[in-house]
What does this fold into?
Amino acid sequence: MALRKMVFVFAVLLIAASGRAQFQGRIEGKVTDDAGNPLEKVEVTIVSTKQATQRLDLKTDQEGRFTQIGLMPGFYVINFKKAGFASRAVEVKVSIAEASKFEVKLETAAAEAERTMSESDKLFLKGNKLYSENKFPEAVASYEEAIQLSQNQWAYYFNLGLAYKKMEKAEEARTAFARALDLNPSAYSVNKELAESLAKAGNYEEAKTLYRKVLEMSADDPDVFYNLGLCEVSTGEGEAALESFSRCIALKPDFADAYYQLGTLYIKQNKTKEAVDNLEKFLELAPGHEKAGVARQLLDYLKK
It folds into this structure.
């Protein structure tokens, strides 16, 4: 009986582990020098763009390879560091139950340049630690020191922007994100953050351009569709906004605010049934929302 119970427990654990694996991904990378030779013992740091405190440290093997499993879907900034080479940071998307595979080349660095970059990396990591401790002014100071030593690292500017954002210094954050974008135009996280900053500043046209660029990179973030929809509403693009909010809900069916936006858009189009359906769904999901009172008033009017 005891043996049968142990077998059952083991089977349950296997099923649970298998279930988790289906919702996680992994990164498989290889690091080489300029000539394509594998680099051993490269320090690899993996940081989630959603949670700066989520950090993983590992090193490459004799073939220059490294693997990290158990990663939740999303974007990660991966930093590479090895004596004698210039440090480098790349952004990688991790998808569910898939391996994100890529190769990175590190360029050799002169001794003086290496010392400078080593000091800037230390300041950058210090800034990350301060950021994780919610010491945002101190993190800003550390990032800015790092930038003074090495002005071509996009991740320095990106994290500086995030720290300024936490301090509610919107203009400074926007400037930092814009510089990060100049250095790495294809970085998903940078485009997304700058789009959000521009939208909050009322620069809807520029924000729309960046949000649409973000969606070309990855169309699985409901927040991006929602924010794009808000920009489209602000620029009078009702049909485009309907599509964006609908795509948001398709990805996240309990995204209450998207239903509210759809309801108000359908009112403008004189589509009463669609407006009622979406406003009722909004109230079902968020009865205590700050816009709930307005939604109830609209429903009373529509049902007369």
Notes: The beta strands are 25-32, 43-48, 55-59, 65-71, 74-81, 88-94, 99-105. Confidence is low (pLDDT under 50) at residues 5-21. The CA atoms of residues 195 and 210 lie 5 Å apart. The chain is about 60% helix and 15% strand.
